[in-house]
Amino acid sequence: MMPAEKELLIEDIEMELLLTALKKMYHVDFFNYRQAHIRRRILTNKIRFNMKTISEMTEKVLRSTDYAKQLLDDLSINVTDMFRFPPFYNDLRTQVMPMLKTFPNIKVWIAGCSSGEEVLSLAIILYEENLLNRTSIIATDFNAGILEKAKSAIYDSDKIIEWTENYNLSGGKNSFSDYYEVNFGIAKFNENLLKKVRFIEHNLMNENSFGKMHLILCRNVLIYFDKTL
Amino acid sequence: MVFLDLEVKKPSNPPPLSHISRPYLNTLKSIKKIMKIKPEIILIGGSAGSLEVLIYILSHLSMKYVPPIVVLIHTSENNKSNLVEIINFETPFHVQSIQNFETIFPNKVYITPPMYHLQIERDLTFSFSLGPKLNFSRPSLDILFESAAEAYKSKTLAIILSGASTDGTDGAIRIAEFGGTIVVQDPLTAEVPIMPLSVINNVDSAIVLKTEEIVQYLNYLMGD
Predict the structure, then answer these.
(1) Which of A114, B45, B85, B217 could form a disulfide with A78 if both were Cys (CB 3.0 to 4.6 A apart)?
(2) Cα distance between residue A76 and residue B33, in whole Å
(3) Which residues have a Cβ under 8 Å from the Cβ of A183 and sit 6 or more positions away?
């Protein structure tokens, strides 16, 4: 057996122990996530925090809440942008909005909302279709910290150029800059966009749903779950 | 099965292109003297200048049975959607894109779609993920290669073609660590030599071959 193969066997056991620690201490279960993906995230974190072994990470998870939160953050990160993949939002405008218009009160659930870019994007579309006032949105994520960020509607301004292009490609009716202000490299989006949004901490794997919904968005969360989930 | 390490003399600094001489490279003749390990997966990676080479290789393979072939070619966004059609048209294999969770089967050529990182799980299924670009690439060759090494171990064969970045080098190192085989398109014949050169400079056991030789080598490996 090559040394790399032997080391891999050991790391596999270490990873199982780490995931067990996360499950027992923090009730977050990554066992049914795609393992190659989780392994990569764990190793990236290990390098970032200068740990020598995965076992060292397990010990820290058990004894340091701060570190455990960092690791959970790393494991639950989504790359998310406003109007990410514009064709999707275009379809939302042209195909979904006309259907939603027929309801007096619209209920939307965004599952796995992460830092909120998707929430704001949807809010903007609803606003432009004159539907925002009669919509209530529930935005959930199992990571409480990232929900706080989502509530703040504050982002780094260096993504604005890319986001502006996304917005335009998605069929935006106004000017993207109508919706935010930039000061000192920070872009803050109009608070009114989030007036109809409730941010709730919620774990898709453990908990129940929120009742009947007209629209549920769950992009890029399910790809991480494996077949049993 | 014993994996024989090939002794390669590597120049200490990357030589200027015009000075690369064949003797220090693993040649086709010397490779045939070692025991052949039939790969259970073939990965082909490249970027600029690799498409023609890829099509040449795939359309000249003569074996009846091939292990799964996974192709990851960095092209501009527009081209990627036609890649499956182009390669399907030009070659005799069943060429398809990839679905998340799909089981990997032999006698298929899989084309990596754009936008997501692709990995191979231990249960030999495909797995997509998001995450920052690595070496400005998403999908990343390194991420694919590393997962393949951990799933197929010494039965992994990766071919690195012409390309403009060093994406794939770390992944090639990992494959070599597990006893897998690395084949590199001869940089002298590559439209953009950066990608293959980077692998040569980092993987001692890399086998450097011209395009026709890559075909001969694959036919040799998979034949009886």
Answers:
(1) A114
(2) 49
(3) none
**Interchain CB contact of B89 with A (< 8 Å):** no
pTM of the full predicted structure?
0.73
Residue B155's domain is classified under what CATH number? 3.40.50.180
Q: Pairing between strand B181-185 and B156-160?
A: parallel
Flag whether B158 is in a domain.
Answer: yes
Structural domain boundaries enclosing B68 = 40-75+82-186+202-212
Q: Which of B50, B74, B140, B170 is catalytic?
A: B74
Q: Is residue B130 included in any domain, yes or no?
A: yes
Is position B167 annotated as part of the catalytic site?
yes
Close Cβ partners of B10 (under 8 Å, ≥ 6 residues apart): B24, B200, B201, B204
Q: Does A224 touch chain B (CB under 8 A)?
A: yes
What digits encode the pLDDT tens for the residues B85-124?
888 888 888 999 999 889 999 999 999 998 889 999 999 9
Q: Of the residues B142, B147, B167, B186, which is catalytic?
A: B167
Residue B156 in this model has a pLDDT that exceeds 60: yes
CB contact under 8 A, A227 and B153: no
Residue B176 lies in a domain: yes
Q: What is the ipTM of this complex?
A: 0.81
Give dist(CA A40, CA A55) in Å, integer: 15
Are B129 and A8 an interchain contact pair (Cβ–Cβ within 8 Å)?
no
pLDDT tens per residue across all 229 residues of chain A: 889 999 999 999 999 999 999 989 887 888 988 899 999 999 999 999 999 999 999 999 999 988 998 898 788 755 678 998 788 899 999 999 999 999 999 999 999 888 899 999 999 999 999 999 999 999 998 888 888 989 999 988 878 888 998 899 899 999 999 999 998 888 999 999 999 999 999 887 777 778 889 999 887 666 666 655 5
Evaluate whether residue B29 is within a structural domain.
no
Number of domains in chain B: 1
Q: How far is B156 from chain A (nearest CA, A)?
A: 13
Q: Which residue of chain B is at minimal alpha-carbon distance from A40?
A: B143
Angle at A13 between CA A48 and CA A19, to 5 degrees: 60
Which of A79, A85, A226 lies at the smallest CB-CB distance from B131? Answer: A79
Q: What is the pLDDT of residues B2-19, one digit of tens each?
A: 334 444 444 445 444 433
Tokens of A97: 């909005």
Residue A225, chain B, CB below 8 Å: the answer is no
- Contact call for residues B159 and B44 (beta carbons, < 8 A): yes
